[in-house]
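Q: Got a minute? One more chain.
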Amino acid sequence: MQVYRDLRIITARPTEDETALAPHRLYGTVDAAEAFSVGRWVEAAAAEIGAARTAGALPVVVGGTGLYFRALTAGLSAIPPVSPEVRERVRREASGRAPADLHAALAAKDPETAEGLRPSDPQRIIRAIEVFEATGRPLVHWQRDGREAAVLSGFDIATVFLAVEREPLRQRIDRRFEAMMAAGALDEVAALAARRLDPALPAMRAHGVPGLIAHLAGEVSLADAVARGQRDTRAYAKRQETWFRNQMPEARWLPPVRAGEALARWLDADGAAPFPAVSSA
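A: Always. Here it is, folded:
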């Protein structure tokens, strides 16, 4: 979500002071009207990683969306491109429909893929419908049938999950949302809402955005909107833990302080040895 120009505050994008410490790439480069994809991100990230290596710098990829990390390290599923005509038609037909209705429509066409998607995730549901309409095959079949070469194939990589105890993390999430509100998140979301974009677009579903839009429309109180944003973010953090444990078992789970020390030792050795297999215990 931090790629979207419209979402500087509500996604806690790095501040000017933070970006002055080291070059930051791909932040705030995409308009909220675009449905940015993992494929486009991998292409852009590959270019920036290549540029950093050419300059003799160390590329550091940070964030929280596990699928994007896995796409860099394991490659993308070899799904044929969806034509603009099919994409436009599917998104036009999906506009204004409730996520549960979209999920039911997908289940009628492609029950196998629908079974693995949450009914509350319209972005992935619409993507699955697009692929089925364009190829006549379920998305899960394409995902099983092979992957393109990974961008980071053959490179020495240290993969770290910064493990924070759950209750302190929950408290930090709540405090951060309050800080974003104090920094002008409501005005930022009001400007986004004024654009009247498709509610199914990824930027319109960023944590905090739906609740604040509902508040601006007079549907809920500001306190309820803030509580919803905090709750959604906490639930996402919990899903992140589950995803990384199951999908990227090679990641080392370390508290932030220990992670810094382990990375420093690895870098001092110029990556000559594998990154230490340290458990989160």
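A: The mean pLDDT is 90.
Q: Perfect, thanks.
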